[in-house]
Design goal:
alpha+beta, four-stranded antiparallel β-sheet
Amino acid sequence: MIKKIIIGNETIEVDTEVLAAIGENLTREMDQISALIASYGAYLAAAKKQQIAQKARYRHWKAKFKDALFKNDPKLADAKATNAVEADETFLKYKEQEAECVEAVEFLDKLVDALKEKSPNLRSRGAWARKEFESTGMTTTYRKIDSKKQELRETNKRPVQRASKQGRRTK
């Protein structure tokens, strides 16, 4: 599943099948998992910040709207003022923004949880792979392992595509 979320001016595309799944190259994935958790943790924090700011803008608008209603009619019942607020088109726009914020926060929260779950599974799979490798009598020198890790880091394909609202992609 490819999920697009917008945080601030940045559009983030996340391919969850690539990011959360355990692929064939355990070494590369073990090298990346901590950085991925940190990166998506940062996105989660930014999404929560955006959610708080959106809620504050809504509450500010609502207070000003109700204040104007009460200035026009000081005896207006609060329930009628609330109904007037909720009948306004701006109310729907704020609620749609709120829903998008909640969706981004929930998605990123679950993604970080999935990556945290992936981390020990990678170590376990790696241990089993090493055990199987050793049981066949095969060995790999430390130097070969280091050069393979470096090669994998250089050819790394990132599962995240970031693009600003203007449409330009960055790495």
